[in-house]
Design goal:
The structure holds 2 protein chains of 2 kinds. In chain A, helix 3 packs across helix 15, helix 4 crosses helix 9 and helix 14 runs antiparallel to helix 15. Chain A has 15 helices and no strands. Chain A is flat, with a radius of gyration of 26 Å. Chain A folds into 2 domains: about 70 residues, no CATH class; about 240 residues, MetI-like fold (Orthogonal Bundle). Chain A is an all-alpha fold. The two termini of chain A are about 15 Å apart. By secondary structure, chain B is an alpha+beta fold. Helix content of chain B is about 55%, strand content about 10%. Chain B is built from 16 helices and 7 strands. In chain B, strands 2-3-4-5-6 form a 5-stranded antiparallel beta sheet, with no helix packed on it. In chain B, strands 1-7 form a two-stranded antiparallel ribbon. In chain B, strand 3 and strand 4 form a beta hairpin. The longest helix of chain B is centred in the middle third of the chain and has 32 residues. Chain B is flat. At the A-B interface, helix 1, helix 2, helix 4, helix 5 and helix 6 of A face helix 1, helix 2, helix 5, helix 6 and helix 7 of B.
Amino acid sequence: MTALSQLTPGQSEPTPKKRSRAMRNARREALWGYFFILPFILGLLIFTLLPTLATLMMSFSDFNLSGIDETSFVGLLNYKTLFADSQIWHSLGVTLKYALIALPVGLIIPLLLAIVLNSSYLYGKSIFRTLFYFPYIVPFVAAIFVWAALLNSETGWINDFLSWVGIAEPPRWLNDTTWIYPALVILGLWGIGNAMLIFLASLQGVPTALYDAAKIDGAGWWSTLFNVTLPLISSVIFYNLTLAIVGLFQYFTVPLVLNQGTGAPGGATMFYNLYLYKTFFTYNDMAYGATQAWLLFAIILTVTLVLFSTSKYWVYYAAEAR
Amino acid sequence: MAVTTAKPITRKPPRIRFKPDIFLRKMALTLFTLLIAFLFLLPFFNMVLTSLSTTAQMMEPGAPLYPALPATFEYDGKELDVYEVSMPDGSMRDLAIVKKGRQETTFIDPQDVDGGEIVWEGAWRTLERPWSVSPAWSNYAEAWDGIDFPIVFRNTLLIALIGVIGTVVSSTLVAYGFARFRFPGRNLFFTILLATVFLPFAVTIVPTYAFFAAIGWVGSWLPLTIPHFFSNAYNVFLLRQYFMTIPVDLDEAAGIDGAGPIRILWSILLPQCKPVLLAVALFHLVFAWNDYFGPLIYLSAKFELQPIAVALPRFNNLYGSNPPLIQAASLMAMIVPVILFFLAQKAFIQGVVITGVDK
């Protein structure tokens, strides 16, 4: 409702003359609405819709920056090459291996932290909240170098501590094809502040009456967590889960900075998006890269749709009436 | 005399100020969380300590954790390393090494130079060196020059500020449209807006790059700033949610007095939104400080225009063998967003909460 539609107060039944005035007001309102969202519409067209279509067209061609004039339509050739390319499957595997560790860590740890920070048994909550959130603000390139120093297999504090505790051969973190994934997850630990804060805010929105009722019914800590807390914040869990998955499939800037895009050690960091980046910007194979991009889009879309369709079985929206 | 009803004697139970078992629980949890926080922030300590030490310290085995320099002694125009040697009479003396050997090593005593050379039985490698606290502040000066911090800082700041103006203005307009006006397709457009979050940027990057190349914007700041003038899904969502919590009454009152939509936005709505506008500005500033990929592809050839997110890895490639300098540069890269955050915590947190929780 805007002010425009209130210019004829006190009239309940529109007479022919008033109805056209109401219609005129509605049209004026609509025009103003379109005017205000114009930046979004233009941006959508120029930076989203047209490029997406162009990429689709590209994937059906053999467009290459070195021979633009010879571009021709090749149908599904690029897609055939894509599915036969072993590097693609390897890269998908790399992404999944990382996601296997990163997704639980990226959701469970912030949630646990939020639960701790929400506890009534904690002193200095606001200080802790700040301490755990502010590393999220640190530019990730700086965070990479700072954590990499800690993870250094010879001089890093982590391996120093592990040797001191008695582990004879601490993992070679950034140089080991298996331990690189936990190392990358550790590198990304500073990013949990955002999810933690959102979880914390949603935890504070859970009505205490429910906790009291659960206590009266004799629920223990674990039981309360699973039957009261988690269901009531499930909408926020869903939000963080979806964003995390979409982000995970596009993960590549960290390995790019860490190893200059070589996929070291031994191809273990050649994430799907990193391979895509190399296809575009190193090999300049635009058509093939476009194909890779659309496969990625298809995967993300499928996963998102699956998430959304199963959400009605486990997500509870407290604020339904809005 | 009036009849007074006797008031029942009620006494509130004495307020228990100190419950031992609850206090213990609180202490336990607080200490536990403190430990977790300490581990979480460990890299900061490492960063500060490393940035103040030197490569010499890093290569010496047995070096302490704090920034320190091993003692040296100048003799005969040469700088001799000093070691802690155990003397036959059981004491430890600091002697300067003259000749390194496996079975026996030759030293001279810095305090008694003319006393001649002292031959000691043993391998010099087993000896430790005396250290003295010595923070290498010069590292910061070196890193400042090496990464060309003033230029890089200026670049990052300008890119960020222009983007902030663009995103605040455009996102406010778009959010206002979605929040206060009814028009056909409003819900559809809003859903599309939200859906853009799920679109992988890989699908749009190449034609966008080609477009910018064709109009000659590659190699300038324009591709990094102009797109933000077309609003951004997160910011529009945040602002729209906030607008919707503000009652329409004032808008309507102003409308009756003859204010048009723009006037209403400017004079009525925006003054009530200052914290959220600040949050949007801060989010974008932090995003721009963090943005690596955009500057990488559009500014790869133009070193003098690069922001800090791209300059830092380039610096690392050049000075990779000097960890203290890298850490010093990393600290310089992160200091501005961190300080900004501490100054404007409330705005940040409010912004995150409104975006994240209002689903």
